[in-house]
What we know:
Strands 5-4-3-2-1-9-8-7-6 form a nine-stranded parallel β-sheet. The two termini are 26 Å apart. Strand 1 (17-23), helix 2 (29-42) and strand 2 (46-50) form a beta-alpha-beta unit. Helix 10 packs parallel to helix 12. It has one domain (3-259): TIM Barrel (Alpha-Beta Barrel). It has helices spanning 3-12, 29-42, 61-72, 77-88, 100-106, 108-117, 134-142, 157-166, 190-198, 214-221, 231-238, 244-264, and strands at residues 17-23, 46-50, 94-97, 122-124, 146-148, 150-151, 171-174, 205-208, 226-229. The chain has twelve helices and nine strands. It is of the alpha/beta class. It is 49% helix and 14% strand.
Amino acid sequence: MSVSTAFDRARADDRSALIGYLPAGFPDVAGGIDALLAMVDAGCDVIEIGLPYTDPVMDGPTIQAAAQQALEGGVRTTDVLRTVEAVAATGTPTLIMTYWNPVERYGVDRFAADLASAGGAGLITPDLTPDFAPEWIAAADEHDLDKVFLVAPSSTDERIAMTTAQCRGFVYATAVMGVTGARTTTSDLAGPLVARTRAATRLPIGVGLGVSNGDQAAEVASYADGVIVGSSFVRTLLDHPGDRTGGLRALRALTEDLAAGVRRG
């Protein structure tokens, strides 16, 4: 299912969409699936599933710790696809967020075909820009997959126009300069970036900037079509090592708070 479906539903409810992220295989493959299903059940409209990678240069320490745990547990790309299949079966649009190297290693056409077969909506590629992505763009188009590229406060207007022209599904506006991570305040760079991006495209714009609670989600939802949350979900599970039940309960509570926030925005 295309991500645009979730944005259309949210727009019909006069609210932003809540987009939740966890890496596959964390705390283990089965536990990760349970966690993602809990997030869907508690109010996430779209799910991003991270493909754990050995050199996550754009991730902050929280997501790095979770990805490392998944790698040490032996997670494979096939496990990531199995996780996508389990979440997509709920009818929730499900994307993989990945660095480009694992996709190239797997085989671009094979990756696109297997992602589509698993019911995945598409791919978010934080370290791949459209001008260096002809192979992925062709494979995604062939398999009807969304292509989500990133824009940042440092992007020129020309760069934003080039990037959004190649996006499908939504545009990912990363409004924090530097690595990912939850923050106590939201960035004052986000609003202007969304405004500049809106001038270039009619696609929905999702904002990722370290949202960690419902009040911050409401603030971002006041100007963005989607609120992207990752590190806070990961931190919630990291805070409950070995306590599967407690971790899931806390994850549901966080998701419900965030879901209420995007409805206030």
